[in-house]
Amino acid sequence: MWWDGRATCDLIVPLSLDHAGGGLPATFGEWLGRDSRDLLPPDEWPRRPV
Q: Is the pTM of this model over 0.70?
């Protein structure tokens, strides 16, 4: 799974359970039931609307 943030911050980044370890993008099954923002690398988090 990939996060397409071109509309907000011009980034396309993989959703992953292990960014620090260089993990592969999350599968659809791993993504289900999670907030996509939780799977983004911490330094890539877009700002949440206030």
A: no
What are 1-50's pLDDT values in tens digits?
887 888 887 788 888 888 777 778 888 888 888 877 778 777 766 555 54
Distance CA 32, CA 28 (A): 6
> Which distant-in-sequence residues (6+ apart) come within 8 Å of 32 by Cβ?
none
Do the Cβ atoms of 36 and 3 come closer than 8 Å? yes
The string of DSSP codes covering 11-43 is -EEE--S-TTTTPPPPPHHHHTTS-GGGGS-GG
